[in-house]
């Protein structure tokens, strides 16, 4: 017999009754029924109930075991009484009578309990992650993650992609976040960087003549943490293709992502129609470039109904350049109580409030109610109702000003209204391509123009587009949104040096600086670069959605905490004097 097990804790069935078996695992739960001990033994695959009484030669030893001890047992498979069968377990028809036992690893008092659904502070869970990972939900999440990655690889190979590995130690690159720098011992005073993404390398792979590339790539960014973002590192499905248009990329990645969500979505509906929405329209309709389309609410501009109206706040606001009034329809929200609740929500978000109108039964039929309705009169309220397609029992909320000042809150209010009124479908994955991103943005304070997205993207219209107003230039850039999260970001690349130099010049980077920072890629583009494009999908975020959790740390094996610390391994830690000396570095004391 094998030294540790003849079967896993999920293998045994009624067909094995009478066999002598060997199992190894962790003591999941112990129940003492007056001299008869029942132990649930757990391994990665499942649970088997063990039985031990005074007839067992090792009864006194079994009495000593505690939760999460790692043990090996030899025993006889017995059938459970019909009344004691557990249909929830594959092994629920049998139990194993213990004849022999060996303690493989005793456990001290546990800082967190593995069995059950007790909640523990995240700091405790991360410090003792090896225990936290023994919990059923975490085992399920990590298995899901592994299976998703395996499925992605198979689907990419099926489309004639090959996986190539790119360097981990490389040069700094402006991907929109801070680099992790690595000091060079052989070149004192110089630094490598961990790649924020394999961006330049995958483009160089295309220049090298490899038609299709993909990689499950580790990426490193020194970012502020969020619930849906790791503060240090993450993995993405990275892909690139030669001789493709934007639509070719969409056609390639959709069956991969859709297939993964259908395979692992647990029966939830997966949309097969992925609309393409311009960045401008997404901001207008949803208040975000990663809209949740499970919520059917679309915001609309209703400025004309308030110009010169009796509602002075909006009327005067519209006299200023660049201002507008937007409406958030709320089907079914036509009560003062609901409207007051949403007004309070806006105030919590830092706005003075939201104006509202709701429609209800009146003496002469349907009437509009609320402060706004009284100020602007029945003709304007009726015109608003008809534009928004609302009726009796519905409401609309209004925000005004320069869109940048209220758009984000409007997007949150749209989500809140959809959830409160039960309009948002919860058992569905809804996807949308966000396209036509602006290439540039202007800092309101400094007036400086800089890239708003990926700097290596091809501008729509090529060189001609760059000769006009930079803020009007659109890029062949695209994101895939799903249920309010960005899952994919990509672009058709700028593969022509002269267009690249001009694009960077508009953002304040001279040709000499571009050659210095991206010399490898600029040099390569001089020697017959093909048109190419691609994208990257966040593995962690995909699994987070499939696992139905809002915290990305629930699907990462060993994540950092919110302060970018690894409490289990004590990282980051101080370097020794010898290490610093060897690298030619000195740590300056922190200024008080």
* Helix/strand class: alpha+beta
Query: Which spans of ≥5 residues are poorly predicted at pLDDT below 50?
Result: none
Main pleated sheet: 8 strands, mixed
How far is the N terminus from the C terminus? 66 Å
Cross-sheet strand order for the largest sheet: 6-9-10-24-23-22-19-12
Total beta strands: 24
Number of helical segments?
A: 17
**General shape:** globular
Strand content: 15-25%
What's the helical proportion of residues? 25-40%
Mean pLDDT: 94
CA radius of gyration: 30 Å
Your description of this structure?
With 592 residues, the chain is of the alpha+beta class. It is 29% helix and 24% strand. It contains 17 helices and 24 strands. The protein has an eight-stranded mixed beta sheet with strand order 6-9-10-24-23-22-19-12, with helices on both faces. Strands 1-2-3-5-4 form a five-stranded mixed barrel. A five-stranded antiparallel beta sheet has the order 13-14-17-15-16. β22 (477-482) and β23 (485-492) form a beta hairpin. α4 (136-158) runs antiparallel to α6. The longest helix has 23 residues, at 136-158. The chain is globular and about 95 Å long. The model has no long low-confidence stretch (mean pLDDT 94).
